Every structure is written in structure tokens, then in C-alpha cells.
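Pasting two entries for a bug report.
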Amino acid sequence: MSRSPSPPRAEPVDPAAGVGPGATWDGGGVAFSLFSAHAEAVEVCLFDPAGRREVSRVALGVDDDGNWSGRVPGIGPGTLYGYRVYGPYAPQRGHRFNHHKLLIDPYARLLRGEVNPVDALCGYRVGDERGHLSFDLRDSAPYVPKCVVLGPPARPLVERPDVPPADAVIYEAHVRGLTMLHPGVRHESRGTVSGLADPAVVDHLRHLGVTAVELLPVQAFATESFLARMGLGNYWGYNTLAFHAPHARYLAGNDPDEVVATVDALHAAGLEVILDVVYNHTAEGSELGPTLSLRGIDNASYYGLDPDDPSLYGNPTGTGNALDFSREPARRLMLDSLRRWAEMGVDGFRFDLASVLGRGPSGFDPAATAFREMAEDETLSGRTLIAEPWDVGPGGYQLGGFPAGWSEWNDRFRDSVRRFWTGEAGTLGGFARAMAGSAEIFEASGRPASASINFVTAHDGFTLRDLVSYDERHNEANGEDNRDGHSANHSANHGVEGPTDDPEIAAIRARQQRNLLASLLTARGVPMLLAGDEFGRTQAGNNNAYCQDNEISWVDWEGADHDLAEFTAELIALRRAQPALGGEEFLHDDARLAWFSEEGEEMTPGQWEEPERRALAMRVAPEPGAGPAVLICVNADAAGRSFRLPTSGASWEPAILTGGEAGADGRWDAVPWSLAIFTASEPGG
């Protein structure tokens, strides 16, 4: 392989200086450090302030552990750079080095510019008869973002909130989607992390009563080429480009310290910050994808390769590649990135396709080294760790299989609650188990009820309003002939597909939204609310809006259903006020958890087996002396029913009704599709 004339060599880095990976400014110069176990040479390339012209290259030295490093004097913050890494281009042995491709530092804290998805990004010659085994000589630098040298990072000034898991209510939101249309957010802050800290947003979250904001990916990401060809972009952000850098478009002033300031503002309001992080794969895709960073730095050290043909990638993510966390380089990169965000004040992480983290040669392992190292890390101690407990590879569905200390997105809760409220037969037992905390999933591992992150809707799928307004997905705007997204949504339009002026259908939909919210916010476990569901946000039936950075996905604040928002706030306040609705333990004692028919009698085994039974009452009590019991009555039937409330030495006071009337005679006359919540009041008390 030919090389350019040898560039000047950087100064050695003093081992005593404690310089870590990435670019570190010391006041008089910048020390660069990059790991590559199989490289033959590494050069750091410096660019002009516009990032258009490469002005110099400097060679780095290497130690016995594969760490390439060197100090370049006379440069500092604001310097733009990238790497060129030399080595064998031997895909059949897992190596894809190509020094013609400018590479992004995996430890870069800020990127300037965006990926321009042209063929020159690929390490192989697109269109060559040898396919990805060919070699491309074009320089990719004009089409690649440049890394930015930064000074010392800001540190949080506000102490993190200490929210007990039993009190947690998570609000899943998108940085741009939440703020782009908010009339109270300053125009220059809309669509940025600074917009999240705007008093107009913070006041809404506080009034609502949530305790944590879970943000869709904010790590720097890229748009896939097939979306770019259709004039669309990756809106959700599940296509990571640089694990340490915030997405530049989310920074109003192009300064990562904005993230710290926003976290401080949310902490000051008592709100925790959880980041949705994507470590399972990168934006480089399959062997036919671009060479942007890890592929050209050390493909064989970072990625999971096909053992029978190392020129191909293992693909348990369905995105073309997956990092191999059985290897130390991938684990180190992830842990260093998590520490970086934790040091910015972030309270927790939700791991996309988290089963990949535990994959090894024998499949998923809850005792995998990656899990152990996270548990032992002092910086991550006390941080919330949430798994999306599946990937698309063999044995990838691992709900309930994660180790102690982890919570998990509980999609069975979602499906059980949806199926019950749409009136599907034979769903009563699944609904009851979901409301009781899904002990059959989480208790055996010794974890508490808060291990279950309960949700009815999330970013992936219908919004709450669309869930009760559409039978089918309507994803035509995505450019895939409505073939993308889930086809089984367990939704119901109640007579008309989409918007309607029919008052009867509108009333049912209003009740159903409240029924689903009430089920979510009274079930045992940690509830997660999708942003905008509290006031009826719609995506016009699009259940896969990952590429819609527009009014389809943005939260419509002007069109908010304020009555629904107040109802949601009342539910969250009730959850916080009633100890019976919290708690970490699973309940199996009839004194604290009991189930009743609409006749007010305890459910019999035969009644549980009746496929058409759609009415149920759940009585749950806290520890003795901690507060009153709570009774939740549900009627998921198209017909009204009269409930006789169970007697237990106490009378029942109505707290929340989505429909029907509660009489003084100990009855609730339920209308079709309705729910009622009562609290116990001692006689004469």
C-alpha cells in the first residue's frame, strides 16, 4: 500500500501527564491519543478554521498496547482535526484500513459539519465487480465532519435529585420534537438542549409531576444514505457517529457545555435526566457502508465479525453491524463514553438494543463482562441503567434476563394493557399481571418492582391519541409504501379511521386515552409517559416517524387538550399521594392485593378463565399503617356495567372517574370503556 511522504512526528506524550484518549489541550499544545491494535501508522490531520483544507499532518508514536499518541505544540481549542490510519486492507482477515479516508476520533467531544453521503466515503470502490473487497483511492475528507479540540469541560453546579424508584415517573421526549413548536420557548433555543431548560418547558414538566426526562439520542449521529436520497433525515438519532459528542444541531451555541447547563437547570427543578444511548452499532453500517471512524481505525478490534467470513459483520442489530462487547476495546469505549456523560451530570441511561451488550460466542449472558464492569464503575454508581431488553439476533429477546441493578422496558406491559382495553378476548389475566408489577418476569431475579419500566406508548409506535384513533399504520410519508413500522399495534379506531366529528366516537376516544393513562400510572413499577400524550398529540397515524423531522413528529403545543393534561397531572399527583400505588415489593398477600368481580366478590379461578370477561376490580394496600387502600375498577367492554364495590370495613371515596357515576350506596355505574379509582376511608373518619 502506497503512503504519502512521512510527515513530521509529534512530540512524545509524557506518561506522567495522565493524558487519556482523544485530544487534550494542556495550555501550550494538544496531545492526541488513539487506540489501534492492528495499525501500521497513524497520522493526525489538522484543518483550516473552515474545515475545508487540510493544512498539515503529524505522525503519532505507538506503545506496546496499541496506543498511538503524540503532542502537537502551538495549537489549542478550536483546532479542527481527524485521523488517517494505515494498515492492511484485508477484509477476509477483518481489516479495512484505508488511509485515504479521514476518520472521526471516537473520543471527539464536538464535531463540525455533517456527513455528506457520497461514494467517496466508502473504503471500497462502489460499482467495482469485486464489491466491498475492492479498494478506493479517493480522499473522503471533504465529506466528513471534523473533530474539534476543546478546552476543559464544564462540571455540574447543581446537586443531582435523589428520587426514590418507587416515586419515579419518566417522560420520554425528543430534544427537537419537544421544543420546536413551543410558543413560550425562545426562537433561538427551539430544537436544542437549551430549549429544554426554558422555563416554559420546565414549568410544564413540574406541573405535570414527572420526575425524570428521558431524551432520545443526543450523541452525534448521521443520516443513512437511503434516507438522504429520499430527502429525509434520521430524526430519532439511532445511528451513532461519535459516542462522546453531543449532536451539533442540538447545540444553540455550538458548545457542549450547554448540555451541562441544561442538566443543571433540570436538576434545580427536581428533574432527573436520562439519555437514550446507542452503543450496539454505529453509523458505518454493513460491509457496504461508509468508512467514518471505527471501521478504518481498527475494524477487527471493535466490531463483531462473521466467524466464517470476517469480511462480513454479525448483525444482531438489524442495522448492518454490531460492536463486540466481549472485546476490551469496545467495552472501554462505551465505559469511557458513559463516564463522560455522567460527569456532565446525567442521572441515567437507557440502552438501545441492550442485549448486544451481553452477547458472546455462546449468546446472551447476564454475567457478561460489560455488565460487571458497569456495576463496578465508581462514576456510574447510583446511575439509573435501563435496558431495551432485546435485539434481532438469535436469542435476542431477553425481557427479565438482565442482571441486578438494571431496569427494563416492559413491552409485555404495553401489549397486555393495549389488548385488554381494545376488548380482545382472553386478556384479563395478562392485564392483571401487568398492573401488579409483572412479578412473573422480574421477581425470580431478585429485583424489585421498579425493574419494570411500564409504558403504553413510546417514540416507536403510535402516540396515545393515535392508538385510539387508527386501526392501521399510515406511514406513507416515510417513502417505503407504508411497509415500515409495526403492523400489529393492538389499537382501535372505534368506528372511523382517523379524525372524526362524531361526538360518540370522540367521547369513547377521550375515555380510552384516560383509561390507558390511568392504567399506566396506577400499575406497580415505574411508569414512562411519551411526550405529548398528556394532551393528545397526534402523528396522523404514523407509527414509525424516525425520519420525520417536521410537524408530524414535533409536539403541537397549540393544539393541546388541556383537560387531558390536567387529568394526567391529577393521576400523577394521586400516585405520589397514595403509598399503595408505589412500593418496591411484589405483592402476593391477599391482605394487600386482591381481585374482585363486578359483583364485589373475590375472583374465582373459573372467572379468570372466562375469555369474554372484561371487568375487574383491583384492591391494593400499602404496608399496615402507611395509608389507605386503593381500589381500581375497570370496564373494558362496549356495554355498561354496574360494579358493587367490595366491603372491607371501610367505605370508598371516588378519586378518579373516566366515566360513569359513583353512588353513595357503594356502587359504580360504569359506562362502556371506563375506569374508576377509589381510596378507602375508615367509617366515621
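Entry 2 (this is the one that rendered wrong in the viewer):
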Amino acid sequence: MQATFAATLFDEWIRSGLREVVVGPGSRSTPLALAAAERGELTLHVRIDERSAAFFALGRALATTRPVAIVVTSGTAAAELHAAVCEADQANVPLLVLTADRPPELHGVGAPQTIDQRELYGPAVRLYEEPGVARADAAWSWRALASRVWFAASGATGSPGPVHLNAAFVEPLLGATLDLPPGRVNGAAWRTNDETASPAATLDVNGARVICVVGAGVNEGIIATCRDLDWVVFGDATARGTLAYFDPLLRDDDFAAAQRPDLVVRMGGIPASKVLAERLREWDTPVVALLGSGAVADPDGLVSRWLEGVPLRDVASMRADSSYATTWFAASNSVGEYLRSLESDHDELNEPMVARSVVELSGENNASLIVGSSMPVRDVEWWAGARRSPTYANRGANGIDGVVSTVLGVCAGAKGIGLLGDLTMLHDVSGFVDGLGAAQGTCVLVVNDNGGGGIFSFLPQAQALGPERFEQLFGTPRHHDLEGVARAFGHRACSVRTRSELRSAVQQALTEPGVSVVVAKVPSRERNVEIHDDLVLSLKNRRSPSR
């Protein structure tokens, strides 16, 4: 009966659109794992570390924009998924989290691999279901259960995100699959998604100076519409086609004052730029949120008006001041030209240069870009050109946990480049155990090796604490041979010191299947702060064509 229960769930999910399942090996989850493995419509990814598996699943969901299932056994295996569930929650990434559990009679009696898994992830999931041990007389409910889980994850009833199905299984765990409960005719899902497009709200821009701030969840087509309406679009590192270099431009007080907008529109998540957040508060202009791309982040409580829908290219009242957009575009181009004039192929690398180069390489090679947290996501947002290829980052919980596995998940069966720091790589070193797995593909990890946690050098702790205490608690230097670490897991690795070497290494790695690690030898963390400060100062000292 348990085999039939699991097979019914997967049959219904396949009808709804499930195509990929990540499996962490275990005994108690046998019915779920076998049910998935027996369906040819599904691609299986087997990974031995459950935490890594969860972030791998998150990467696949990011890349495919559809729910991905992850199956694990009972006990601490289920607890290992928590960090990825939190990221998926806050980043609105659809995951079907399927944890096997011991039956009620084995709880509280010292049975092995048994913990309290009820509502294990708390409010981080969109839906929690605990159907109990499968019973024949409840077979009529199984498809409805699967449907509830699927549509809660996919966002039919709210924002997409993770759901948790905690299914108890009794021994024997192996069994024959009987006839499945009947489904809808023609293979249709038990419940269809009747989602209809929300009508665009009337937003009377009427030629005003408009800045639109977008983040995770806003696609390239919507951003293009905003540009066509002469909105100036600032985006986070994952946004494609937004205005480059808005952060350094906003650091110029005179320019920021002269270019104060009449209206700010918000969609999706938020960029990493603290300067942008400060200017939005300082400008004190009306802020409108458009909900057509999902939840809108508003941590500072600046939104005064919430509207359904998305910008509409053909609505005349939504057209903004074209001269204002031209001013920002010219200023951005000027910054880009200036930054290019500062570097040559033979210059020694620094972190902003690495970010610019990696963004260029991803666009030139049509390779997905996955950006790590802390400094990489900021350097891509602030100092790189506009992204042209699909770009991803764990910008929900914004942690460094699981980034290597997320990169591998995006690159599975495809081609991509990851940009991350040395601590981020070491934090998720277990992701290298399985690499790309059976899915294969090409994954190039560019790792900034600056000997520790670089972002902390930009924070007040760096000046407030003595060097020894700061290094102990925040810099946390690690002196591992990153090339050696990668090779120990069977992957290719090399180190580079110049822009030319970086470009050559990445270009070569993109032609080879498997995982390659390119270690970028960049200046110290202290020097990195100086480089950022020097760039900002030099840009301020230049006369902007818009001033």
C-alpha cells in the first residue's frame, strides 16, 4: 500500500509538471525514492549530503522556474534541509520537501533515526502536510493531497516557495505497486491552475521622472517594458537589462540631489546597495509597489501605495520623462567607459575587476551566472555591466550556506559560471563530493581568494576592534590550498593573477565537461577596501556629463 501511495503522489505531480527529483539515499524513504526512480518522465539527481542536496534542488528550481522535489530519510537528514528551506522561503523558490518519518509508535521510545519532524520548518513553508501511514481506505485522498502540495509550492494560492510533506512509513518498506487511484482524464492534473492575469492598475506617471527598483522575481521582459516606458531601472545582481553602475553614481551627493526622482516604483526583491536605500529615504518621494511579479520587498516601510499588475508598454499614462532616462543612461555609460580605461588584460586582478570580467564572460558565452553572497553579489551589482545571461543568487536569506551546491544545481545538464569567495567555497565543500552527478554539464567556479571574510572589512568592526580580535572573530582567515581542495574531489583547478589569465582559464573551462575551479588571486581584504574607496573617489572627481 505504501508503494502505491508514493506512486500516486508522483503520478499526480508529473501530471502537474514535476520533472526533477533530488534524492538523498536512506532506508525509510525507500517508497518515495523508488516511486520517483520508476518514472521515466523524471530526472533523478542522487546526492549523499542532504544539506548539499537541498541547495542543489534549489538551484534546479531557480534554473527551471518550476517546483523540484527533494526526498530524504528520517532523523537528522530532514534537519539538514532547513537552511535551504529558509532560503527558498524568502526567495520564493518552489520546492517539494518530502521527508520520510517513522510511524507514531516508534516516536518517544528510543528508535534510531527518529526526531520530531512535525512542522520541522515552522512558518518557512507554504504548506505542511502529515498524512500518516498510508491506508487503503484513504486512497481517494492521495491525489488531492498531491495537488494541494503542488499548487502551494508553485504559487497558485500565494507566493511560490517550499512545502513540506512528512510521510510516515512502516516496514517492510519494499512492496509492489497496485493500481493507482483514478486521476483526471487525458492525464490532466487533479486540480488545474485557473490563475488569470491581474489587470494592470492605472498608474498615472504622466511624464514624471521615474526610478524603478527591481529584484528577484522580476523577469527580463518586464524590465524591458520599464525601459521602453523611459523608467530608469535599478536592479539587484540577478536582474537582466537594468542600469549598470547605479550604486557608484548614487554615492555622488551632487548627482544624487540633481537626479531626485518624482516617483519610485518597486517590484520584486531588493538590491544589496545600502546607498540606494539611503537615497530612497533621503529623497522622500512617493513609492508605489507593483505586485504583478510577486511579493515586493519593503524592509524600510517606504511603500505608500500597493497596486496589482505590471507596467504596460501601451498605456500612455505610464510613460515617463525620456530626458531623465537619457541622463542616467549617459552617466552609466560614462562610468563604464572610465572603468574600462583603468584596466588592461595584463593588470593584476582585484575583486571589482573579477566581477566585471565574469559578467562579460557569462554574456559572451551564453552561460548562466550564479553569484555568491557577501562581496561577489555586491561587486556584480555595483561594478559590473548589465547582465545578459540568466543570473541567479541566493538572495532570500542571503547566506553563504550551500552556494557551491546551488551553483551545481543551476549548471546540471547545462553550462554556467559561479562567482564566490573562498569562505563560501569552503563552507559548502561537501558539494564537490557529487559534483554535477549524472546530469553532467559544465560548471566553472571562479573563487576570489582573499584569505577570509572580505565583507567584514567594510563594516565598523574593522575599525572598532584590534587587528588580532577582528581577524579571530570576523576575518577568519583560512589558508587552505583551494586548488588542492578542488583536485582532491577529482575536479580541475588552476590559479590566475591577471585579467588575461582569468579570461583564458574561464574560456577554456567552459569548453570542458565537469567542474573546474578557477582561483582568482586578489589583493588582501584591507587593500580591497582601499580599491573600492579609490574607485568611488575617482568617479566623484570626474565631471559627469549630466552635471
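Dev reply: Rendering is fixed now. As a check, the viewer should reflect this: The two ends are 74 Å apart (CA to CA).
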